[in-house]
């Protein structure tokens, strides 16, 4: 931890020695690494000049508001669970919510306009030896390298979840966050909902470098659609804006029948990011017995179909069908979880 004074509201802060920290009093995104510096000296007391403030504070700090408070998010989860086949209908009264947290996760978003001039080689076909019996056909096709030039113009919006991969809950890693509704960061909103703010583990510069690489990679794959080998290129990448955005995720932990489950809900739109779905005992008993009976009957038919030639076709076809139905019932018991489709 390091002691700093918030460059905006002058509050004394004791913060982790991480690149960026959101002041819990005024919501300013403080570039701690700029204030503390490599020699680890703390900035205290003295009034910060306007110039220093510009380097200490990152102004493009936004929030995606949560449209739901904690109990509303919990209702969403409970309503969703009872609609899933096999989930306990008595969930509300028999499950115990052990944790309900609203976390504001950090994401960097960079907007870029880029044009890449390239020269490269592409494979062109060369035809030889006209086929004597089919006009317009050739017996041999070979390929040779031919130089091609062009320019790829693209605009990109690159998102970068601002945490180390291992620190991001698994279900969030490939979740598309909608950042179009961003507003300037508002600490009051976070406080009203009792949310926790999580800050970036990357400094502004690190984030910019990674996103820049993202642009280069995307341009690469565009160029490789045209040529198989790049011989020279000239990239012109214009940074249109870089934003630091906090977005809301409700995280639940609950127990049902002695087992632990978890759920993640996007607070900005109520979408279910992931729910571990408990399966009710009643459902388990029915599907396992019905599934087992089908599987046994199907297997029996299949065996007799294979061994008694006169009923072979019926036995095998029906056997497989009934066996498959049985397996579907049984497999319903092994689902790990559910999520809402993203469009
Ligand atoms: Zn402050």
Walk me through this protein's architecture.
Helix content is 31%, strand content 35%. With 343 residues, the protein is of the alpha+beta class. Among the domains are: 2-59, no CATH class; 70-112 and 153-199 and 239-275, no CATH class; 281-334. The protein is flat and about 95 Å long. The structure holds zinc ion. Zinc ion binds at residues 6, 8-9, 11, 23, 25-26, 28.
Key phrases:
alpha+beta, 13 strands, binds zinc ion, three-stranded antiparallel β-sheet, 343 residues, flat
The class by helix and strand makeup works out as alpha+beta
Number of strands: 13
Distance between the termini: 42 Å
**Considering DSSP H and I runs of 4 or more, what fraction of the residues is helical?**
25-40%
- Determine the oligomeric state from the structure: single chain
Order of helices and strands: EEEEHHEEHHEEHEHEHEEEHH
Which value, in Å, is the CA radius of gyration?
A: 30 Å
State the low-pLDDT regions, or none: none
Biggest sheet architecture: 8 strands, mixed
Quickly count the helices: 9
Mean of all residue-level pLDDT scores: 87
Instruction: Please tell me what the overall shape is.
Output: flat
Strand content: 25-35%
Small-molecule binders: zinc ion
């Amino acid at each position: 931890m390091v002691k700093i004074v918030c460059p905006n509201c002058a509050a004394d802060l004791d913060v982790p020695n991480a690149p960026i920290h959101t002041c819990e009093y005024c919501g300013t995104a403080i570039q701690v690494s700029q204030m503390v510096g490599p020699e680890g000296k703390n900035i205290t007391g003295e009034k910060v000049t306007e110039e220093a403030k510009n380097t200490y504070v990152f102004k493009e700090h936004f929030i995606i508001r949560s449209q739901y408070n904690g109990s509303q998010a919990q209702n969403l989860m409970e309503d969703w669970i009872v609609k899933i086949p096999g989930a306990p209908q008595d969930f509300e009264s028999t499950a115990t919510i052990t944790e309900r947290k609203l976390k504001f996760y950090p994401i960097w978003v960079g907007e870029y306009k880029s044009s890449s001039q390239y020269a490269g080689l592409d494979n062109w076909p060369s035809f030889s030896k006209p086929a004597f019996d089919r006009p317009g056909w050739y017996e041999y096709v070979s390929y040779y390298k031919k130089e091609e030039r062009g320019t790829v113009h693209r605009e990109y919006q690159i998102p970068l979840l601002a945490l180390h991969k291992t620190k991001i809950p698994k279900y969030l890693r490939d979740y598309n966050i909608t950042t179009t509704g961003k507003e300037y960061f508002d600490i009051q909103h976070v406080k009203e909902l009792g949310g926790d703010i999580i800050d970036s583990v990357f400094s502004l510069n690190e984030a910019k470098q990674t996103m820049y690489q993202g642009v280069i990679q995307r341009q690469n794959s565009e160029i490789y659609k045209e040529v198989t080998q790049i011989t020279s290129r000239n990239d012109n990448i214009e940074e249109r804006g870089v934003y630091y955005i906090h977005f809301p995720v409700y995280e639940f932990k609950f127990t049902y029948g002695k087992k632990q489950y978890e759920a993640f809900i996007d607070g900005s739109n109520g979408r279910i990011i992931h729910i571990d779905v408990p399966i009710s005992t009643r459902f388990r008993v029915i599907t396992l017995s019905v599934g087992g009976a089908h599987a046994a009957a199907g297997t029996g038919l299949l065996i007799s179909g294979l061994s008694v030639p006169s009923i072979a076709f019926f036995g095998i076809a029906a056997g497989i069908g009934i066996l498959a139905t049985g397996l579907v019932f049984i497999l319903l018991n092994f689902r790990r979880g559910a999520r809402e489709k993203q469009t």
